[in-house]
Structure formats: C-alpha cells, structure tokens
Design goal:
337 residues; alpha/beta; Rossmann fold; 10-stranded mixed sheet; 10 strands; 36% helix
C-alpha cells in the first residue's frame, strides 16, 4: 500500500498544520516553535528574537575576525537555554573549541579579569601534570567557577570533526544520533560550509554551492532546526581596504538565494568613512576595537542594518551588548595604509 501521509509525500493541508501546531502548544516543551536567541543585543531584536527553526543563517567575514568566536557564543546561548547543539567543525579540533568556550565563559562571568584564552590553553596543556581540570582551574590564575558553570551544559554540545568525506548524509546521521540520545533537535553550526563534501561531478564553485546550500536548507526544514553556517570569502572579499559583502562569499549567488539571513562581519576601522579617521575622532584607533556585523539579508525583518560589537579576542569572545553603528560606513577606502 502506498504511504500517503504528509511525512511521506511532503504534501500538507494547512488545516493539519494548524491542528498539529495547536497540539504542540498544549505540550510542556514548546521551545522549538519560537526563535532561538543568539544572546547578542540588539541583533536578536532585529532578527525577531534570534535564529528560527527551519531557517539557514549565513555568517561571512574576513579571516581572523571572529566568525568561529561568534558561532561558539551563539552555541553557548543555545545550550544554556537547554537546547542541544551540533557543531560541525572542519577548521578546529574539539579541544580547541573547548578552550575557546572556557575562555569566553570566564570572560562573560568575570569581565576583563577573566582567564585569557592563552591561560586556558596553559591550564589544559601546559604542565603535563596528572592533575584534573578541576584541580588546575582552582589554582592561582585559574577560574574554578568557570568550569563549574559550563560543565553540565556541555552535555548538550556535540562536535562532529569534519573531513574530506563529511557530507550532508554525515551531518544528518549526527543529528539522528543526538535525537536518539533524547536531547531534542539541535542548533546546527557548520564551520565552514565550503568544506562540506559534494558529488565529484560538481566541479564549478557555484554548482557545488547550489547543491550544498540547497541540501543544508532542506536539512533545516526536515528536522525543523536552525542552521548557522560560516562561509568563506572570495579573493575580493579579503582585499585590503575593501568592505566584505554578501557577493564576496564563495558561491555567493547560490548561498544568498537559499539563506534566510545573511550576516557579514567587517573590521570597523577598515570600513568607517575617512573623515571619521581624520577629522571626527580624537582617537581613531579605537575603531580597531570593534567589529561591524551587517544584516545584509533578513526574510523576517529589516536588512541593511549595521551593528557593532566590541572585540575581546584575548578571551575568545565578543561583548554581547552592541549598538547600531553611528558613523558612516563605506565599501571601499579612498586610501590604503
């Protein structure tokens, strides 16, 4: 007998969707219905609450400007709220991600007095002693409350170490494993999506990215999970004195079509108008302290909004309280130092 259920055919009557949604609202756990906060203000306000299940959010930016840092802080917000997270990492090992999370946790709990990323690495790797992590973090220079605050939540953070053969099927299998563990549908973070394996027959960049982006969006819809995918930039996007935009993502046209939200990071000093550097500030070097996050596409609200967040990369974090950029920004500097 042919299976004609909506799950099998993909054909839904909206009356069925309404009834199912109403039934879910009567359950105790309805966290998956609404947006998942990123934990950054005012970003969440402009995204109508955060990242939404079934939607794909792209994050672009030049190398070294904190894309992984931002993604891990979003993951930290999700696990603190009781959600599971699948972090698909092609760029960093699991220990490296743990070090970053611990440093950022210390920074958020203790401010500038928190343990630096360098110090966390020394605690985890430096003395080759047999002491436990708890013992190391209670030593002078450590931060015992940091480890205590984050330990329980890390049960919900899963790292899939990506490699040359890691494809959409592997990511799907990882989500199935998390669901089987009873932790619910996870936020999926992909760092970064250009490294997801695609069929060898897809040789051109745009064709590959069209396949990968479409598959990621299908995955988000199938599991009703939010996906945050970091994207690499093309050569023009990392050119000195130029502002990176959506069109500078590798495979940009395919990615921009599938994405529901596109966020792009830039160094504030590199994109602020020249008159602010020369005439408008007694200390133009302060612009180096901030990254600009531009909301370049936003299906759930306004786009074309530029926010700024202070960098604290010695602690592997951004300050979560930002603001709308007050200065004029430009796409290309008139001069290059």
């Amino acid at each position: 007998m042919t299976n004609t259920t909506p799950e099998a055919t993909g054909l839904y009557r909206l009356s069925e969707v309404l009834a199912a949604t109403d039934a879910r609202l009567g359950e105790e756990d309805v966290a998956g219905l609404g947006p998942w906060a990123t934990g950054f203000d005012p970003l969440d306000g402009h995204l109508a609450g955060g990242l939404r299940p079934g939607e794909l959010t792209l994050l672009g930016g030049p190398q070294g400007l904190g894309k992984t840092t931002f993604a891990l802080q979003v993951a930290r917000t999700a696990i603190a709220a009781g959600h599971a997270v699948l972090y698909v990492s092609f760029e960093h090992g699991a220990v490296n991600l743990l070090e970053r999370l611990l440093a950022a946790e210390s920074g958020e709990l203790a401010g500038d007095h928190g343990v630096s990323l360098k110090a966390v690495r020394a605690l985890l790797e430096g003395d080759r002693s047999a002491a436990s992590l708890q013992e190391k973090f209670t030593r002078p220079g450590g931060s015992a409350h940091t480890l205590a605050a984050i330990t329980a939540d890390l049960e919900r953070l899963h790292v899939l170490r990506g490699g040359p053969t890691t494809d959409i099927a592997a990511i799907t299998a990882a989500i199935d494993t998390i669901l089987a563990r009873g932790q619910g549908a996870p936020l999926v973070v992909i760092d970064y999506l250009q490294k997801i394996a695609a069929p060898a027959s897809l040789l051109e960049e745009e064709t590959r990215m069209s396949f990968v982006a479409g598959a990621i969006k299908d995955l988000a819809l199938a599991f009703s999970v939010p996906v945050l995918a970091i994207s690499a930039s093309d050569a023009a996007g990392i050119a000195e004195g130029a502002r990176m935009r959506t069109q500078n993502l590798r495979g940009a046209s395919a990615l921009a079509y599938e994405a529901d939200v596109v966020l792009v990071l830039n160094e504030k000093y590199d994109v602020v108008a020249r008159h602010h550097l020369v005439y408008g500030s007694a200390n133009p070097e302060r612009f180096h302290l901030y990254a600009v996050m531009s909301i370049e596409k936003n299906r759930g609200g306004r786009a074309g909004i530029d926010l700024e967040f202070r960098k604290r990369f010695d602690q592997a974090m951004f300050e979560r309280e930002g603001q709308v950029v007050a200065e004029q920004l430009i796409d290309s500097r008139i001069f290059v130092e």
